[in-house]
Amino acid sequence: MAPRKQQEIFDATLRLVAEKGYDGLTVEGVAERSGVNKTTIYRWWPSKAALLGAALVEADVLGFDPPDTGSLRGDLVALVEGVARLLTEPPAADIAVAALGAAVRHPELDARRFFADRFAREREIFERAVRRGELKESVDPMLIVDLLAGAVWMRAVFRGLRVTEDFADEAVAALLDGI
Fold first, then answer.
1. Chain-centre distance of CA 80, in angstroms?
2. Which of 53, 82, 112, 130 could serve as a FRET partner for 64 with CA atoms 20 to 30 Å apart?
3. Averaged pLDDT of the chain
4. CATH class for domain 64-177?
5. Which pLDDT does position 1 carry in this prediction?
6. What is the CATH number of domain 3-60?
7. How confident is the model at residue 2, as a pLDDT?
């Protein structure tokens, strides 16, 4: 399947989830919105869970390139700002919250692939920081990502508060400098 057509299918999938939730997502709805025959979609993805799982990882709208600012602090601030954009700016915010929220209630929707794929890219930040001598090799990168990304989820999604412009700097400073 052509990459452009695939992106149209992923885009339709993610937008439908954002609008109707996981329960309202159907392969028929994706076929109608993307203009691709539903048998073609089923040939590539055997279920709506498989389709949404692929869309979460491969859709351009949720695309992620790890920052490379030249310093661990700068990279972590940029990472937090990226998570904040993902969770607060439409259409990505509606998509991320709906799709990842659905993953909690529907084990067949394997969101672990989304987080594993993203973390594999985030790991580069920490590997560079170790090479530059900014970070001990014994530091757990996943713990750092979870603390920072979790702070954004708590603030933006669960508390429903605005993520201020200085939030990323403050969160990273609290982690790196201690409170």
1. 12
2. 130
3. 92
4. mainly alpha
5. 78
6. 1.10.10.60
7. 84
